[in-house]
Fold:
Amino acid sequence: MELKEKLVSSFLAFENKVEVDIDSTVHDIRSKAFSDFESKGFPTKKDEEWKYTSLNAILKHDYNVFPKSEETLAYKDVKKYFVNETDCYNLVFIDGKFSSFLSETTHDGLDICVMSSALTKPKYKMVIDAYFNKLAGEKNSLSDLNTAFSHEGAYINIPKNKVVPKPIQIINFSTGNEQEILIQPRNLVIVGENAHVQIIERHQSLTSNTTLTNSVTEVFVNKRGIVDVYKMQNDVETASLIDSTFVSQQRDSVGSVHTFSFGGKLTRNNLEFYQNGEHCVSHMNGISILNGKQHVDNHTLVEHKAPNCESHEMYKGIYDGNSTGVFNGKVIVEQAAQKINAYQQNNNVVVSDKASVNSKPQLEIFADDVKCSHGCTIGQLDESALFYMQQRGIPKKEAKALLMYAFSNDALKDVKIPELKTKINEIIAKKLDVKIGFDL
Structure:
């Protein structure tokens, strides 16, 4: 049975399984989303937005949509995947199910809990009706699929004037209890006026069994709110990830999403920002370091709807082996959005002759008083700089690693959690297969 046919037959069973009120708004949203997915199907390379990324290899598997049994994990076995030195709120999910043992939630002045409660309990109905699927709706068939099967994930609601005292970690583990599994986390983040929150998100497979994760996150940042999201993507070679994140900003807000792609078979990041008020600032930074046959596709969109706003985008890529990198960044400036400052840059280093990069930065400007720029570079390491470093006694391997680290470092400068920055640097050093002899 093809995956699409299996999902069609599973949808009715899913709604019965999670006991959703058929008269609820959520039921109507799910039903429409599944109808849209059924008519669109999975994207193919015939779609312009998927021109350089084929899903054929990952869709041929017979994924289990509903895990047969619940697995438990001991903290000592997964400790290395947490930012250990930082005290955090933890929301941990194992094979798509919430793990209360590994998690720390709270309702003390703010809500850090799970979507399954928010979608079914009456006390959350007003918030769900106001926010759920308002950004992800009808964006693409994969976000429709996630919406149709949405049940579990992170629900974060930060009230007005609240600064969350510590970061929030969202970690999705796949245990390998199923030979092939499809996991679909759904996250909703609401940041109130003058509120501030930091979020770390990670998807991690613990075995070599095939895993496909189709994740959707909606983030709403109200007036003068600040949100920093860090996405750690360093999975095993049998795990694939499709991650869609949608951010809506109101006036004077600051939104940042940092994406670090180091592992996994195929990774597709859809990141969209919508600036709905004046003086919004949006930051998008990304680093991809790939080898083997890894494939990472970063698709970004910033839509400037109001004047006097800024967006800054910096994506760096290092590609070795037979790896493939894709960058498609689009900035849209509406006619009413005057005095916009938008910057977009994608720089890539191709280490191997067999690696490839496809880059397409785009600007669509309908206003006449703006400052917008975009650029792309694809090249190799500077041989003269490499020779200079070797003359100073640095071995060639370490010299190449230092040059590549220096190249990628620009995209790290805005990481505001020191322990996370140290962990990312350690992963970069490991990916470059070198011990860098200075304090990172």
